[in-house]
Design a protein that fits this description.
Strand content: under 5%
Order of helices and strands: EHHEEHHHEHHH
Pfam families: TMEM164
Distance between the termini: 56 Å
Number of strands: 4
Strand order of the largest sheet: 1-4
Number of helices: 8
Keywords: Membrane, Transmembrane, Transmembrane helix
Structural class: mainly alpha
Helix content: 55-70%
């Protein structure tokens, strides 16, 4: 019989997996001191992309994730959630050093932070899966730090506008994908938390959720601007 693990906010599996991911991430960040910063960034970019591929492979072929008694489907592993998009953009940014990608990463960074500290409650069978999952998220934050420290990247208002436009495009894409595949990318097909359904209709919730994310992007941009020096 397969051993089943349980993930919940700040239980031992959550804390141990997140700490392990942070240790690996900080080790990789510190290693940058002894290497050429641009070449090492390219290496990290490919590492992040490979980590995301590993995350998808484990989830689709090895895992049996169950959330609220329902098994996760293969289509749920498609990279259309906010954090998944950020993971891919982080890898591409470190390879290309494109400043607009950096702007998206920094202004959307509240998403992986929330996911790391407030994970969904679910069961899983591959003991190392959460480590890989959290590693992809901690490396988003590492990418923001790397660009700030080693490439002296700073946000501009134009970069902020690009990040908002891309966010709206991502929401639009998620809406159509969700209708086609019955998924819940960007939480536009169903409520992010069931309790919200008691207070808001789905239509009002969608509008409120999009506005809340734009506010999150704006707040993160404002904070980053204060740190630009």
């Amino acid at each position: 019989m397969e051993k089943v693990y349980y993930m919940a906010s700040f239980n031992s599996n959550h804390i141990n997996s997140m700490l392990t991911a942070w240790i690996i991430t900080l080790f990789l960040l510190v290693l940058a001191i002894v290497f050429n910063k641009r070449k090492y960034a390219t290496f990290l970019g490919y590492f992040i992309l490979l980590s995301k591929i590993a995350d998808i492979v484990i989830r689709v072929f090895l895992e049996k994730i169950k959330v609220d008694g329902v098994y996760s489907q293969a289509v749920d592993a498609l990279p259309f959630h906010m954090c998944n998009i950020l993971i891919i953009l982080s890898g591409i940014y470190l390879i290309t050093k494109n400043k607009y990608l950096y702007g998206i990463i920094v202004t959307w960074i509240f998403a992986p932070i929330l996911v790391m500290f407030i994970p969904s409650n679910f069961t899983y069978i591959t003991w190392y899966y959460p480590i890989v999952f959290y590693l992809t998220h901690t490396m988003i934050i590492m990418t923001a730090i790397y660009g700030f420290v080693y490439f002296k990247q700073r946000l501009s208002f134009k970069m902020y506008l690009v990040s908002v436009v891309v966010l709206l495009l991502a929401f639009t894409n998620a809406y159509f994908v969700n209708n086609k595949l019955k998924t819940n990318f960007f939480f536009t097909h169903d409520y992010v938390m069931p309790v919200i359904s008691k207070y808001l209709s789905l239509k009002v919730y969608r509008i409120a959720y999009i506005i809340a994310n734009i506010i999150g992007v704006t707040a993160t941009y404002s904070l980053a601007r204060k740190l630009r020096k």
